[in-house]
Specification:
With 87 residues, the protein is of the alpha+beta class. It is built from three helices and two strands; from the N terminus they run H-E-E-H-H. The protein has one domain. The protein has a two-stranded antiparallel ribbon with strand order 1-2. The longest helix is centred in the C-terminal third of the chain and has 17 residues.
Length: 87
Amino acid sequence: MAQIATRNVTLGAQGRLVLPAALRRALSLSAGDALVARAEGPDRIVLERHSAALARLQERFAKTRGRRDLAASLIADRRSEARRDAR
């Protein structure tokens, strides 16, 4: 993707924000595209496609080298408890 120039925007009276056409074109955004907004720190807003946010979160919680994922850890704990209860 080519470098995108900074564009100034103004928040409307009802909290609406219009993304300039140059940014929409550069990011291939169309009317109706699902975006996720999140705050980063006290003065930064990040907008990203819903699919990109989902992929980022899935990667964050995916099984990583040397560590079990959360679901596997929970299952192991439950099995251990079941063995203790069976005694």
